[in-house]
Amino acid sequence: MISIVIITKNEAHAIADCLQSVAWADEIIVVDSGSSDDTIKICKQFGAKISITDNWPGFGEQKNRALALATKSWVLSLDADERVTPELQKEILEVIKGNAKASYRMPRSSSYCGQFIRHSGWSPDYVTRLFRRGHAKFSNDLVHERLISEEATLTLTSPLLHISYINLDEVLDKINRYSTAGAAMSFSSGKTATLGTAIRHGIWAFIRTYFIRLGFLDGKMGFILAVSNAETTYYRYLKLALLKKENGN
């Protein structure tokens, strides 16, 4: 009745917990983009149907690749660092049993370097992940893709756990990758930037996260998160400015 779709690359540190949390599902689809660790081996142990791609088109298109392989009536899209709680499992099964004509969003509770973040713009964080197959797809964005649904979106109450950014090495890696993808998306849509733009947006990202979104209430990690948000934003606009220069514009 339900397919789980997950995209992966080098997720051996996280994928087992994710798959264990959805072992109750009728089908698990994993689309991998060239893992060099034990990701594939672990997925096979859980009986997942695995497809390996030789190129990376971006998050949106890769998730649509996984979606195209699903065969059940309902689909739940997960990231490898997410976990379905028993309470959320129960709520999902009740929903799909009723076969309502809707997509569903759920609150996501995210951790940052070992601490669950209650403010900083991370909570409440609703993500739309449960939908009827054939009635929704993902946007083709390189990063920060969204689900586009033909049906109304209703809200579940049980949280989806997100074990995000396990350490600062991962934070720095994602700052680099996400800022590069974000700059490429902006450049392809005709946007431009300057060094001044990058500085202003970076400062504003810190102010918004730490003060306006009450990041200071998350303590030390709230400050670190605000700084990393500022860095991601700064580098995204700086890379966009450099793309403009490299292309002679």
Protein model, in words:
The structure is a single chain. By secondary structure, the protein is of the alpha/beta class. It folds into two domains: 2-164, Spore Coat Polysaccharide Biosynthesis Protein SpsA, Chain A (Alpha-Beta Complex); 168-246. Helix content is 42%, strand content 24%. Strands 1, 2, 3, 4, 5, 6, 7, 8, 11 and 12 form a ten-stranded mixed sheet that branches. It has a two-stranded antiparallel ribbon with strand order 9-10. A hairpin with a 2-residue loop joins strand 6 (103-112) and strand 7 (115-116). Helix 5 (168-188) runs parallel beside helix 7 and helix 6 packs antiparallel against helix 7 (219-246). The longest helix is centred in the last third of the chain and has 28 residues, at 219-246. It is globular, with a radius of gyration of 19 Å. The N and C termini lie far apart (52 Å). The relative contact order is 0.13. The mean pLDDT is 96.
Gap from first CA to last CA: 52 Å
Shape: globular
Spans where pLDDT lies below 50 across 5 or more residues: none
> In CATH terms, what is the architecture of the largest domain?
Alpha-Beta Complex
Structural class of the secondary structure composition?
A: alpha/beta
Rounded average pLDDT: 96
CATH topology of the largest domain: Spore Coat Polysaccharide Biosynthesis Protein SpsA, Chain A
Give me the count of strands: 12
CATH superfamily of the largest domain, please?
A: Spore Coat Polysaccharide Biosynthesis Protein SpsA, Chain A
> Which CATH class of the largest domain is shown?
Alpha Beta
Instruction: Name the helix and strand elements from N-terminus to C-terminus, one letter apiece.
Output: EHEHEHEEHEEEEEEEHHH
* Tally of helical segments: 7
How much of the sequence lies in strands comes to: 15-25%
